Structure to design on (558 residues):
């Protein structure tokens, strides 16, 4: 009995591992496969109930709200509880079915859930700027600005913090290709020091799987800061910093790709042998001959 | 089984070892199918007698022991492990020596092993293996890679000789992973695995080793090229689709050929 329980636990852990390690946009395919491999729907359902929320939050999955009011990003920054996510732009709370990856219900946020009007001025201005930037930069991008600390601050004199979440995914399974760009920017408004500090984390993944399986996985972190200004001016300078760092990151990714053929890849396998001519398969006797001579002369190991 | 193979195509090649062992524990009845259809990372063992490393795989394994191509002995020792016929062993010895030179010319380091065995149709099968650690700590001559692994598995079935020609069926797999790490660009990892097949009828006057070697060389060139141009190119295209470079600054994409 104990053994059976152990086996069941192990099956569930394996199913969870496959689900949470699915590439961007592929969890439903992985789910179908692993359900059939596990061969026990009850175990699978338990695993899915635990793995999907984790996956949706790490991949910053974007779901459409049912009343067409907009999209909600599934992220810890907007998480009220396991299935309810706050969307600050529309001031709504969306109820999410993690396993189906749909939004089932939406309701207006309560006063307690909303930030103070002082904070909302900063947040709204930043949201507008970041939205403009994301709209111009990412064809499939979604963004949101959350107040993560100090949402009830009523006026100058106190610190507060925002999180800016940008999520862009491009899924084209018919072309065997999926990818995602995720960035999270932490913004600390330090009233006492009159500075705004920015910490960013960017992550890009791509998967190409036509007759093979090749994946790109990159991430980086960076920091910056600016002076504490009015809501509008802060919004502009923060967005400029983000634009600068993200563009720089994109350039460095391009550089990594450009370096591949001639430098990086060469350390794995050269295009041509060191002799720069194809290997002399017709004349391999020379190698065995040299070997024999080496042996006879007692040199080499 | 089909679902298991689809999972292997989706999970990152970097995690294939974990994925395979998970599938083996879920599908114990399919273990031989899984092991023959999914290529796993190659392990290396040191043959103390010859002072050389050799590669472990399903083809030189018997129970828990592996036959070294250098000493023709099993490690850990076992009494009656299968050995190739003396004639085939002679070709195996030669193949190992020549392939080591080939490997050094293309890889500037790494480990290689060749195993041969008779099959049931009066022909034989050869398996050519290469494992290279191209990280800057190991055999990476240029020192660009934080982590870099290349593993190639070539299995050639050589049919019974008919008149002057023999049929060669080559199945090749390449698995690789490379990571660069530096200040502004952070961690950059590409990993992949692809498998291709090639069938040829060739005159045997040049010898089996020459024919097999040429096929492997051509195949490795093709695989390297398609990884570089097509597969990496596609992931790069994807990045540019997610965040297109500003207009007027169009980056050139590698031509897919």
């Amino acid at each position: 009995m104990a053994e059976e329980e152990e086996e069941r636990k192990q099956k569930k852990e394996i199913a969870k591992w496959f689900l949470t390690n699915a590439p961007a946009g592929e969890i439903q395919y992985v789910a179908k496969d692993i359900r059939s491999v596990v061969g026990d729907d009850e175990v699978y359902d338990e695993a899915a109930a635990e793995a999907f929320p984790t996956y949706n939050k790490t991949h910053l999955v974007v779901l459409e709200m049912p009343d067409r009011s907009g999209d909600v990003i599934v992220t810890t920054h907007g998480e009220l509880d396991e299935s309810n996510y706050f969307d600050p732009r529309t001031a709504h709370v969306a109820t999410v079915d993690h396993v189906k990856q749909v939004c089932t219900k939406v309701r207006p946020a309560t006063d307690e859930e909303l930030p103070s009007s002082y904070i909302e001025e900063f947040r709204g201005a930043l949201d507008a700027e970041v939205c403009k930037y994301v709209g111009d930069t990412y064809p499939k991008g979604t963004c949101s600005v959350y107040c993560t600390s100090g949402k009830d601050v009523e006026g100058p004199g106190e610190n507060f913090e925002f999180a800016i979440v940008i999520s862009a995914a491009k899924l084209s399974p018919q072309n065997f290709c999926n990818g995602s760009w995720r960035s999270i920017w932490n913004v600390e408004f330090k009233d006492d020091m009159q500075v705004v500090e920015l910490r960013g984390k960017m992550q890009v993944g791509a998967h190409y799987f036509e007759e093979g399986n090749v994946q790109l996985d990159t991430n980086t972190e960076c920091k910056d800061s600016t002076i504490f200004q009015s809501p509008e001016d802060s919004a502009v300078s923060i967005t400029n910093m983000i634009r600068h760092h993200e563009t720089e990151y994109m350039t460095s990714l391009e550089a990594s790709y450009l370096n591949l053929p001639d430098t990086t890849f060469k350390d794995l396998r050269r295009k041509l042998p060191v002799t720069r001519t194809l290997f002399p398969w017709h004349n391999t006797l020379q190698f065995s001959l040299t070997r024999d001579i080496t042996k006879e002369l007692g040199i080499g190991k | 089984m089909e679902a298991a193979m689809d999972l292997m195509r989706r999970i990152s090649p970097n995690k294939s070892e974990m994925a395979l062992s998970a599938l083996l524990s879920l599908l114990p009845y399919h273990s031989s199918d899984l092991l023959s259809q999914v290529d796993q990372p190659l392990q290396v063992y040191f043959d103390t007698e010859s002072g050389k490393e050799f590669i472990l795989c399903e083809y030189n394994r018997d129970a828990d022991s592996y036959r070294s191509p250098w000493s023709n002995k099993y490690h850990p020792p076992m009494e009656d492990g299968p050995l190739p016929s003396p004639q085939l062993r002679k070709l195996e010895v030669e193949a190992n020596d020549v392939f080591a030179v080939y490997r050094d010319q293309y890889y500037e380091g790494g480990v290689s092993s060749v195993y041969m065995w008779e099959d049931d149709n009066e022909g034989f099968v050869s398996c050519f293996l290469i494992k290279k650690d191209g990280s800057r700590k190991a055999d990476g001559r240029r020192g660009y890679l934080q982590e870099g692994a290349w593993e190639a598995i070539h299995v050639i079935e050589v049919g019974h000789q008919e008149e002057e020609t023999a049929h060669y069926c080559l199945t090749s797999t390449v698995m690789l992973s490379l990571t660069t790490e530096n200040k502004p660009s952070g961690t950059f990892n590409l990993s992949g695995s692809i498998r291709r097949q090639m069938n040829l009828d060739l005159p045997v006057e040049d010898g089996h080793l020459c024919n097999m070697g040429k096929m492997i060389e051509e195949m490795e060139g093709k695989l390297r090229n398609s990884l570089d141009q097509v597969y990496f190119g596609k992931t790069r295209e994807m990045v540019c689709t997610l965040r297109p470079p500003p207009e007027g600054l169009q980056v050139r994409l590698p031509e897919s050929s």
